[in-house]
Amino acid sequence: MYYVVTFALIITMALALTRAILGPSVYDRVLAVNMLGTKTVLLLSVIAFLMGRPDFLDLALAYALINFIGVFAVLEFFRNRAAKQPEEKP
Amino acid sequence: MTVIFGFFLLTLLLITAVAIVQSQNLFVSVMLSGMFSLLLAVNFFLLDAADVALTEAAVGAGISTVLLLSALAITAKHEKAPSSSRVGALIIVIIATLVLIYATLGNPQFADPNAPVHQHVAPWYLDKTAEAIDIPNVVTAVLGSFRGYDTLGEVFVVFTAGIGVLFLLGTQPGPFAQSNPFKLTDPKGLRHYLIPRVVGRMLIPFILLFGLYVQFHGEYGPGGGFQAGALIAAAIILFALLEGENSALKVIPRSVLIGLIAGGALLYGVVGLFGIFLGSNFLDYSVLSSNPVKGQQMGLLIIEAGVGITVTGVLLSIFHAFAARGKF
After folding, report:
1. Who among B31, B206, B238 is closest to A20 (CB)?
2. How many domains does chain A have?
3. What is the pLDDT of residues B67-81, one digit of tens each?
4. What global pTM score does this model have?
5. Domain region containing A78
6. How many interchain CB pairs under 8 A, A with B?
7. Which residues in chain B touch residue A74, judged by CB atoms under 8 angstroms apart?
8. Residue B162: which of B150, B154, B174 has the closest Cα?
């Protein structure tokens, strides 16, 4: 059962990766990275049970807690860039 | 079965690496390097290296993306097209790859119990940990006590790297800081965005709590000073993103950060010196208490705290140095 779930998750990760590489827009990529992060949390949890070491769930917890910081940084990056764009043009 | 998963994930890793190199748009490269770090952590985890995976998770999931974006904010958007042909470099890389692949043929098989690495000192560590230090996580015992010198060296590498980055970027806001149009964290932060603010503020205490748990639970589960330092730094960087950089600097000013960088490394070194003063060797924690096992555990706790303090200080200083940096 765990094997099936693991395979499904890895295939989903491959699909997210495809979207991140192909793009085309920035938002596709941000969403793809975020989704890959979520899938990583799930995959780590499943593998922890697969290997019979549920105490390793700590790792999945660490990801779940700080995964979105990168997304916030991206938001701020684009907000600042968009806010300053009109000044840039002569 | 694990080998098949590992094979899949390594293939994805390879594809990501090639895409990072191929992409001309630097923002895409930053996003893909975030993915690279996620995939790498899963690979470490599959190989049963939970402590390494946790380090990769703590640094890669949040902080490295933030730092790369900060760097991107003060550079150009696109990579410059290469000025000359790179055929020579390609040939050298291909030859080096072939040599390395040839060298791996001489390695022992994956997970071979008779491999030299499993026969040299590892059995001794596994035997002695329960007797000398009495903690379940052998990795922490090896890292902090048996190979305490190496970890001291690592802490000083982090310390030196932090000092080096601060020399390059400066610790104070530059003359162009105010006019920098692409600064990552503007003074207001994401304060006007209600949902990120509410959710983010709710999560900060939990991240800090989890950081402290990882810090002080390193003897029993995966974790330790390096991971905890990165997690605590992530919590404060999140605060800086939400409330603006200046609010974060009010909480932990730059002078305190410099103190943290030096203080953590010093704390580690002083524990080592205590060993000498109490009549034993440098970094021998057994003499710290009347009971040698208790002394070892105490020494481990203190040096892990030193590691955590230095890592937090360095990561936050680098973040603030980037945020204060003007665009030329």
Report:
1. B31
2. 1
3. 888 888 877 777 777
4. 0.86
5. 2-88
6. 155
7. 31, 65, 69
8. B154
